[in-house]
Amino acid sequence: MTSRWIDIQAEDGKSFKGYLSLPPTGSGPGLMIIQEIWGVNAHIRAVADQYASNGYVVLAPDVFWRSEPGVDLDYNETDTKKAYGLMNSLDNAQATQDLDKAAQALRALPECTGKVGIVGFCMGGRLAYLSAANGSVDAAVAYYGGGIDKFLDQADKVKCPILFHYAEKDAHIPPTAVSAIKAAFANASNASFEVHPDTDHGFNCWGRPSYNQKTAALAHGQSLAFLSKVL
């Protein structure tokens, strides 16, 4: 795989960066990886490379660029406090529009040969859901997306296939929130849910104490199987 940072043109004429990782063949369907609150850090870049190794042309856009470009934080107390501050000041509507422009930029790359999907983690899971509702992508995967239950007025707008991953013992997303999201999609044939037993929030991130190797591997396989049907 090869990787580089590219410039993405925003709707207001400004530009922001995205980490692009290419598959071994050099081309393939497009996939956006949307960061957690710690930015496009080493872990998110590694996840982008992971999906690139699976044959996707992967773009991880810098979500926080309007507040602070190039955020790259660790999981220690100081960085996490800063990360929460950045998340709390994020304009979800503006970020969704920025991700729409990122999806357009990905589609326009000569290496991108097919449709474009999106996979988001935590805050990125919420943005993946909102991007699906915005019609920006052809498929969406939301890993333990916090706050989706606050945007269920957008559920009817999600027309593409969407897969939700949740952790049974999530300390950040209560079962009532998951139930509300399931209820909003009860009659939607395009939505599917995986609730992983004996796991906590952030199970896919190997840099955090909540990492669960078995569940991360299973969910990754489920996500690949899901994306392969659409992209």
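^ that was protein a. below is b, sequence first then the tokens
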Amino acid sequence: MAIDVETRRPKLTNVMGGLSGPAIRPIAVRMVWECFQAVKIPILGMGGIATVDDALEFIIAGSSAVQVGTANFVDPLIWNKLIRGLDGYMTRHNIARVADLVGSLQIPGKHS
């Protein structure tokens, strides 16, 4: 909930809205990882993605795709940066397909 202090009215038409952005990213990444362990269907990761590292976290945790919301308002051209960053990461790590990254989290002491 956000209040316009000058008008003393809610800033959102529905009075309340969901929490989004960087504040929820760690929780959302964890939930993607937990879902990836439990289901064998594509998972869409979202919540606080503003950099290529943010997107990679979701993908490595198990997201088949990611959605960028709030960051589009800050930088409407963010997708170009994310795609270039992802391409650079894949080149540096000799990874041919994004699908090879999905669910590739390596936990020390655990063998897959």
